[in-house]
């Protein structure tokens, strides 16, 4: 049990060592990803302070392994460059008395294919347009990092009985070297994909064009169909008022809260009445038309996005990326798209529930966290708990322990003496941070540290009263021990002139014979 306690020295707290380890997403469960023994030649015991639930630290072996599926693409959906997707483990090094931070960088693998928000799109344009007209297209979304995302788009169509393919490589968008193409793709510096209509459309010659657009990530390809109808009246697609919306929420945001209200307007008319909003994807996973999801709800008519589930169980999740479309609902036009980032903030100040977060050093804590068992006789300044809280944290009771500040938002609670169960068997801890309180009791558990004590001293026997040759002097004695549940046994020591009988737990009879 002793191994589960930490003796903290008062120096060296600011020291915090960091190691960065790179692992691939989708590494199989139970794979060992780090061996803490590799950091030192001596056997060091570590106390787990904070961890991701996707990782498992075995304190017996000092090995860190994967405990749940790691999918980078849902863990860090907005990290397109794959530069900041980390899982961390914070440990206390009981040999060097400092904090060890292990950062596991999650590398992307190309495990997702690009997805278009729809299998078919249609646009309508008026004839007699100016050649060179740009139509923004919906790009395929690939939730992998950019490097494993869409690399190439191809536009395939038939024109004058000829199959024409226009392709564009997003990473090398060199000048088109094909010429005389009536339609081709263009990719601009804002990362938007356009269809260029390099001709003046004439409804009398051809009233409809059908294009296949293919997105290729060099492992998977996906295609969609685009129908261009040539009209003689004007018809515009709607536009969102913002291309990106950001919302901050916390794990305790109540169900039903409206997170944001999206607005799109239609260039054709002043009124927004017939704009129809739809949630197209969450973290890149496409939702089918009218498919319900358990977390968010979008009102198709008002554009209000609300939360419909508790997020408490998503302890490793800190961001959602939602793609929302707006269309005028009359036909399957290219919807205007916007992205909503929902940040889940674990801000201590925003979340009263976690204002005082405790991690106990003892491995023996009652289920309701009201009792923490700590063995007596551990050294002074033994680690009781690691506390995440801000600087308003106050210790209301002081007997037996003290608070040590580690960082701006973390503390340790340490013993201020060597506990002796026989003197004091429990201490009440009462912490407060503004209106939040945490109380628990430290119960000092027993170790066999007391010597048995005789109920009387043999040396005080007045020999004159007893002395009679060859007659034994019978003394009845017992011994007690202040340890809990202690059983005192009696045993004859060498060279003591006594024999024993009636050995039992309660008392002992000793016969003394005087030899002259
Ligand atoms: C931790 O490692 C020990 C030694 O290999 C093993 O017996 C134990 O089952 C492991 N614990 C868990 C929870 O896997
Ligand atoms: C450019 O033209 C040459 C010759 O016609 C052709 O081989 C090459 O594939 C073209 N490049 C692109 C990017 O289309
Ligand atoms: C656009 O059309 C003009 C006139 O037909 C043609 O000369 C030019 O090559 C076309 N551009 C492309 C990129 O095909
Ligand atoms: C969300 O929080 C970040 C800091 O965590 C802040 O910079 C940003 O302004 C906040 N956004 C909104 C919409 O409150
Ligand atoms: C959180 O604390 C603030 C002030 O500290 C208080 O106004 C608010 O009601 C608390 N919220 C909850 C959910 O307890
Ligand atoms: C925790 O400590 C109490 C009191 O010493 C003891 O009864 C109990 O068995 C201990 N539990 C564990 C899991 O060690
Ligand atoms: C917590 O559990 C212990 C037993 O494990 C019990 O004695 C105590 O009354 C409980 N405290 C509360 C606040 O429920
Ligand atoms: C225990 O350590 C604390 C902090 O160093 C010190 O203030 C206190 O006097 C020590 N207590 C004993 C009994 O040594
Ligand atoms: C010591 O304990 C024994 C057994 O309980 C008892 O007979 C005896 O009188 C006690 N002696 C003293 C001095 O209390
Ligand atoms: C042992 O002696 C003490 C002191 O006389 C007495 O209080 C106690 O009950 C005795 N214990 C037993 C087991 O006889």
Automatic annotation (TrEMBL):
GO biological process, one term: homophilic cell adhesion via plasma membrane adhesion molecules
GO molecular function: calcium ion binding
InterPro entries: Cadherin-like_dom (IPR002126), Cadherin-like_sf (IPR015919), Cadherin_CS (IPR020894), Protocadherin/Cadherin-CA (IPR050174)
Record-linked SUPFAM superfamilies: Cadherin-like
PROSITE patterns assigned: CADHERIN_1 (PS00232), CADHERIN_2 (PS50268)
Family matches, as SMART domains: CA
Chain ranges of the Cadherin domain: 15-116, 117-240, 241-360
CDD domains named among the record's database cross-references: Cadherin_repeat (cd11304)
Coiled-coil portions: none
Membrane topology qualifier: Single-pass membrane protein
Signal peptide range: 1-16
Gene Ontology CC terms, in alphabetical order: plasma membrane
This protein's UniProt keywords: Calcium, Glycoprotein, Membrane, Repeat, Signal, Transmembrane, Transmembrane helix
Subcellular location(s) per record: Membrane
Broad class of where this protein is predominantly found: membrane
PANTHER family, per database record: CADHERIN 96CB, ISOFORM D-RELATED (PTHR24028:SF146), CADHERIN-87A (PTHR24028)
Name this polypeptide is given: Cadherin domain-containing protein
């Amino acid at each position: 049990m002793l191994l589960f306690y930490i003796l903290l020295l008062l120096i060296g707290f600011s020291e915090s060592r960091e190691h960065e380890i790179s692992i691939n997403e989708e590494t199989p469960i139970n794979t060992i990803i780090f061996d803490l023994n590799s950091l030192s030649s001596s056997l060091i015991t570590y106390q787990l302070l904070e961890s991701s639930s996707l990782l498992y630290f075995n304190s017996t072996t000092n090995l860190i392994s994967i405990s749940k599926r790691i999918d980078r693409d849902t863990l860090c959906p907005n990290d397109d460059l794959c530069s900041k997707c980390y899982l961390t483990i914070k440990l206390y090094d009981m040999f060097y008395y400092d904090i060890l931070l292990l950062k596991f960088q999650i590398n992307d693998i190309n495990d997702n294919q690009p997805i278009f928000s729809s299998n078919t799109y249609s646009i309508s344009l008026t004839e007699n347009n100016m050649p060179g007209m740009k139509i923004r297209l919906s790009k395929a979304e690939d939730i992998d990092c950019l490097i494993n995302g869409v690399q190439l788009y191809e536009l395939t169509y038939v024109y004058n009985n000829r199959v024409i393919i226009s392709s564009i490589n997003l990473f090398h968008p060199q000048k088109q070297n094909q010429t005389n193409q009536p339609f081709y793709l263009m990719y601009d510096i804002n990362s938007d994909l356009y269809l260029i209509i390099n001709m003046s459309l004439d409804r009398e010659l051809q009233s409809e064009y059908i294009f296949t657009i293919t997105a290729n990530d060099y492992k998977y390809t996906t295609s969609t169909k685009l129908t261009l109808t040539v009209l003689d009246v004007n018809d515009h697609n709607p536009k969102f008022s913002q291309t990106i919306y950001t919302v901050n929420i916390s794990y305790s945001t109540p169900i039903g809260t409206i997170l944001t209200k999206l607005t799109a307007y239609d260039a054709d008319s002043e009124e927004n009445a017939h704009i129809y909003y739809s949630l197209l994807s969450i973290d890149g996973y496409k939702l089918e038309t009218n498919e319900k999801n358990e977390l968010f709800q979008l009102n198709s008519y008002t554009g209000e996005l609300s939360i419909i589930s508790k997020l408490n169980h998503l302890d490793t999740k800190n961001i959602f990326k939602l793609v929302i479309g707006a269309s005028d609902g009359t036909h399957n036009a290219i919807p205007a798209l916007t992205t909503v980032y929902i940040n889940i903030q674990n801000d201590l100040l925003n979340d009263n529930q976690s204002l005082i977060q405790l991690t106990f050093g003892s491995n023996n804590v009652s289920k309701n966290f009201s009792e923490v068992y700590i063995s007596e006789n551990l050294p002074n300044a033994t680690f009781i708990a690691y506390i995440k809280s801000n600087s308003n944290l106050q210790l209301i009771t002081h007997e037996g322990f003290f608070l040590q500040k580690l960082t701006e938002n973390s503390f340790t609670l340490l013993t201020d003496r060597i506990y002796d169960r026989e003197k004091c068997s429990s201490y009440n801890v009462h912490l407060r941070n503004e209106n939040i309180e945490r109380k628990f009791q430290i119960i000092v558990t027993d170790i066999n540290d007391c010597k048995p004590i005789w109920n009387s001293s043999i040396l005080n026997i007045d020999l004159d009263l007893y002395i009679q040759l060859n007659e034994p002097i019978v003394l009845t004695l017992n011994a007690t021990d202040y340890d809990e549940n202690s059983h005192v046994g009696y045993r004859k020591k060498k060279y003591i002139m006594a024999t024993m009988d009636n050995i039992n737990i309660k008392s002992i009879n000793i016969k003394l014979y005087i030899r002259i």
